[in-house]
Every structure is written in structure tokens, then in C-alpha cells.
Amino acid sequence: MALIPLKTANKIKFKAFMECFDHIVTDCDCVLWLENNPIPGSSDVIKKFKEMGKKIYYLTNNSTKTREEYVMKCISLGFPARKDDIISPGFLVANYLKQMNFNKKVYIVGSEAIAKELDEVGIKNFGVGPDRMFGALPKPDDLKVTLESNVGAVVVGYDVHISLIKIAKACTYLKDPNCLFIATNTDRRKLIADQRYVLPGAGSMVAAIETTAMRKPVILGKPETFTQKTLTEKYKVIPSKTLMIGDKCSTDILLGKRAGFTTLLVLTGHDTLKDVQEWKSSSDATLQSYVPHYYLDKLGDLLPLLNEI
């Protein structure tokens, strides 16, 4: 447990710190940008990392975009990126199923981005888009649910079209014990610029189906094992030479610490310094596991230090 303010490092210590890392894994939302606005200084820091020869991976739990769409967003906001630099939920789902030679259909409660990533590896899928019932709560015979055959997996992510019918279909497919139940992540909320509102995250949708299906999903996104294995096995990331940057301790920082990465929390998103200080002094081992090695007010605060080395 550390919680060291990285901004206070002197030139010599910071140079030694940066020389430890070949790979930098960074979250996107609330670290690099908020919605469609870059957080000041963040793109300059990422460019500086690239100039220093660091390999950058953009690791997100946001399933609303494909890797190609994330590349377009990165470039439009000033962040250098290629498709292979992006690790998104849809990509993780496609990889997971491809590794097990999956050859059935996938029912998606989620975004078109997940469907496109599955299409890319030749996995048949359906379910994306609106699917709702009209009128009062129906009797079972009034549901008129059409079920597909040969469905081998239900994938649940963030779905702006979540509905009773979708939950019913997902849980009906999951009555088959051989049907896989996969969740992109269990993030409770999506952080948005207008803080008057609370926007549910994919976790609320996963929880609805988990409760009704009475089954636990395999969770692929941060902070779970499959993401870690993707980084270390597919991308050959060496834990001792990797810096993980994030704004959310229960996903970004926890993933990094489980994987043996050095972790850096930026205070531009979900968690506050007060939160982390309380966790550090807690006797709860779970809360202590959320405490990062280092922290900064924002990623852009690294720029003066980087310019000195």
C-alpha cells in the first residue's frame, strides 16, 4: 500500500520511475476525456509517452464503440492510436468466444459495437436494437416472444434499449445450463458531464438478468482475470514493466494490482482522494486492495515532469 503523490517526485526520481515501464495501459473515460472533450494536458502526456518509446494500450469497459470507432475518437481528440492499441469489451467478448471455438448463436443485450466485433470473427449474433412491449404488463401468452434456435451464449453489456422483453428472452435462453452467460463488465454507473443526473451502467443490466436467471455470469472486463490474461498473454505485457492508469479504483486500480502492475490513480473521475485515504486506513482487505501506488490530480500534471527528462 502506498498512495504517493507522483507530482512531488524530483527529476531524478521521476526519470527512474519512467524508466521502469515499457508498457502503459490507460483507461479512457474520465482519464483521457469526458464524453467528447479531452481532459486538459492528457493528449500531450500520451504523445510524450509515445516519444519515449512506451507502448500504449487503451483499455476500456465502455462497450458502445468498436475498436475502429475508438481509434477515430482517439485521433479526433488528439491521442495517437491504432486498432491494435484498443482493448474494448466487444473485442474481449469476441476473443473469449473465438478461443473456445464457439460455433453457435449469441443473443446480445448490448450495443451494435459488440455485434460488429463478433461479426469480425464470424460469430452469428442477434438482439441488438429496440425490442419492447406495448401496453400493460402482459399475461405470459401475450408476450409473443419469438425464440431463436441454437443459441449458445447470452452476452450482456450496456444497452440503451434494455426492456422487459430483452430480459425475458435472455433469461429464457439461460434456462439451458449449457448456454454461456457473459457480461462485459459490472460497472454500476456511467459518469457524465452533467452531474445533476445519474446514468446506470452495464452492471445494472447484468444484475437484472442475473437476478431473474438465477445464474452468475462470466465477467470479462476490468478488473477480471480475462482482461489481465489478454494483456499478458496476447499482448505480452510484462507486469513488472507496466504502468496502469485509471480513475476508478474498483476496476482500473484493482486490475492493475491483481496483475502486478504499478498503478496510478487520476482524480478526474469516479474516486476522490478522500475515498482512497479512507480505504488506506481501513481494516477491510477489499478496500485496501483499491488503494493505488501513486496518484495525480489529472494526467496532464505529468507534462512538466516529462518535459524535464
Automatic annotation (TrEMBL):
One of its GO terms (molecular function) is metal ion binding. The active site is at 27 (proton donor), 29 (proton donor). Signal peptide: none annotated. Substrate binds at residue 222. It comes from the Eukaryota. One of its GO terms (cellular component) is cytoplasm. The keyword Hydrolase applies. Its cofactor is Mg(2+). Gene3D superfamilies: HAD superfamily/HAD-like. Mg(2+) binds at residues 27, 29, 247. Pfam families: Hydrolase_6, Hydrolase_like. The keyword Metal-binding applies. Keywords: Hydrolase, Magnesium, Metal-binding. Divalent metal ions. Mg(2+) is the most effective. Belongs to the HAD-like hydrolase superfamily. This is Phosphoglycolate phosphatase. The lineage of its organism: Eukaryota, Metazoa, Ecdysozoa, Arthropoda, Hexapoda.
